[in-house]
Specification:
single chain; 150 residues; alpha+beta; Arc Repressor Mutant, subunit A; 5-stranded antiparallel sheet; globular
């Protein structure tokens, strides 16, 4: 069964997240954002309105058998993300904290460019490209990340 290729650019408020280039833009201007906050934002944007658990974030950011203070690392990355977005935990516009569970993206999200359901074995408008699966959350649940191979 084919898996959806993620939308390349997601918009929310005055921001755009381009997953393929790894950029966050505000009013079209590229912003500095470290890798972990960027990955958390991408995870939240692909699950708007849903609670994304701290465990899901941990599984996305760190491989198994990694030993770090996950709670502080996740809290720090979310704090940096909120700072970049001009958001606050007390009065959130984008990221809501769900105590002892995780986070939820609460703003409206739209895609700039729709991508058809295309997997490695499916033909279609993007069939001239080969796609490689970058990974998915352990257990096969959650988003699947695809990248073009030129």
């Amino acid at each position: 069964m084919p898996t959806s290729v993620p939308n390349r650019v997601l918009r929310f408020g005055v921001f755009e997240l381009d997953q393929w280039s790894g950029e966050l833009r505000k009013h079209g201007v590229r912003m500095k954002l470290q890798e972990q906050p960027f990955q958390i934002l991408a995870l939240l944007l692909y699950h708007p309105g849903e609670v994304v658990s701290r465990e899901d974030i941990r599984n996305k950011l760190w491989p198994e058998n990694t030993f770090v203070d996950f709670d502080n690392a996740i809290s720090s990355a979310v704090r940096k993300l909120r700072e970049a977005l001009g958001d606050s935990a007390e009065n959130p516009r984008f990221i809501e904290t769900i105590a002892r569970h995780g986070y939820r993206f609460i703003a409206s999200v739209s895609s700039k460019d729709e991508r058809p359901d295309v997997g490695p074995a499916q033909s279609g408008p993007l069939s001239s490209r080969n796609w490689i699966k970058l990974g998915s959350r352990s257990g096969g649940n959650g988003p699947v990340w695809w990248a073009p191979v030129w």
